[in-house]
Design a protein that fits this description.
This protein has 96 residues and is an alpha/beta fold. It contains five helices and three strands. 15% of the residues are buried.
Length: 96
């Protein structure tokens, strides 16, 4: 098992998994404290035949933040939009 603190795109985790496998190790799972839940990382772990198990993720954190009135639902939607289109998110929301 590979253990990570944060998974964004999954690139560094997959690289570690591949290196362990090349050295003869068996890796079937990756445990992470937190994941952004990006489609790119989900696909990367699928292609690597490795299960990604997370303690929590951005969607859950945002839902909790709305429930406890730390952010508005509109703010949650803006952040979730980043998960779906990170490369165009800044321009779309006026941050570029």
């Amino acid at each position: 098992m590979v253990i990570e603190d944060l998974v964004s795109t999954g690139g560094s985790s997959i690289k570690a998994i591949e290196n362990i496998r090349k050295a003869g190790g068996i890796v079937e799972d990756c445990l992470a404290i937190f994941s952004y839940g990006m489609a790119k990382s989900k696909e990367a772990f699928k292609m690597a035949s490795c299960n990604l198990i997370t303690i929590t993720n951005l969607s859950e954190l945002l839902e909790y933040s709305v429930e406890t009135a730390k952010i508005t639902n509109d703010q949650k939607i803006i952040v979730l939009d980043w998960i779906n289109e990170p490369s165009t998110w800044g321009h779309k929301h006026g941050f570029e």
